[in-house]
């Protein structure tokens, strides 16, 4: 598994944890940063995970607006928390990270959804991200 794939999982953990606990994302990120300081072997994945989470924090309103607009009949608060987290990190990659090809961001998000969410989440995540990618 690539360092970026590991970083996406790590970012997903942070985004999901913050959402489920109702904690401020910046607080959850700071806590994770302390833990990461004690794990030098995982530094490469931590750096990109932090970039993703920082990007979501900085662009949260625009990211959520894109998800709401393209989710077709799904309210953000009705989505499973893991799907919200996956969509947020993937929308950040699609819209704000020129280093990651859109197809890669979508494929990685779909794989995360298949691994960590419901049976239908992979196709749901793919559909939302494909619609966003067409307009981005």
Description:
The protein is mainly alpha-helical. It has one domain: N-utilizing Substance Protein B Homolog, Chain A (Orthogonal Bundle). It is built from 6 helices and no strands. The protein has helices spanning 3-21, 25-37, 43-70, 81-96, 102-116, 121-135. 78% of the residues lie in helices and 0% in strands. α1 packs across α2 and α4 runs antiparallel to α5.
Attribute tags:
single chain, 136 residues, mainly alpha, N-utilizing Substance Protein B Homolog, Chain A, globular
Tally of distinct domains: 1
Uncertain ranges: none
Name of the CATH superfamily: NusB-like
Reading the helices and strands in chain order gives: HHHHHH
Query: Helical segment tally?
Result: 6
Distance between the termini: 28 Å
Q: Got a strand count? A: 0
Helix share of residues? Answer: over 70%
Give the C-alpha Rg: 14 Å
CATH architecture: Orthogonal Bundle
Name of the CATH class: Mainly Alpha
Give the percentage of residues in beta strands. Answer: under 5%
Summarize the topology.
Layout: H1 3-21, H2 25-37, H3 43-70, H4 81-96, H5 102-116, H6 121-135
Helix pairs in contact: 1-2, 1-3, 1-4, 2-3, 3-4, 4-5, 4-6, 5-6
């Amino acid at each position: 598994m690539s360092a970026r794939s590991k970083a996406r999982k790590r970012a997903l953990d942070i985004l999901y944890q913050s959402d489920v606990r109702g904690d401020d994302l910046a607080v959850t990120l700071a806590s994770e940063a302390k833990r990461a300081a004690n794990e030098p072997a995982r530094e490469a994945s931590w750096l990109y995970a932090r970039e993703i989470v920082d990007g979501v924090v900085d662009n949260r309103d625009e990211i959520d607006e894109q998800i709401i607009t393209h989710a077709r009949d799904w309210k953000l608060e009705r989505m499973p928390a893991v799907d919200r987290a996956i969509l947020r990190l993937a929308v950040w990659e699609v819209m704000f990270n020129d280093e990651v090809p859109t197809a890669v961001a979508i494929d990685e998000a779909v794989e995360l959804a298949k691994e960590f969410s419901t049976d239908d989440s992979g196709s749901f995540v793919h559909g939302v991200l494909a619609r966003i990618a067409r307009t981005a």
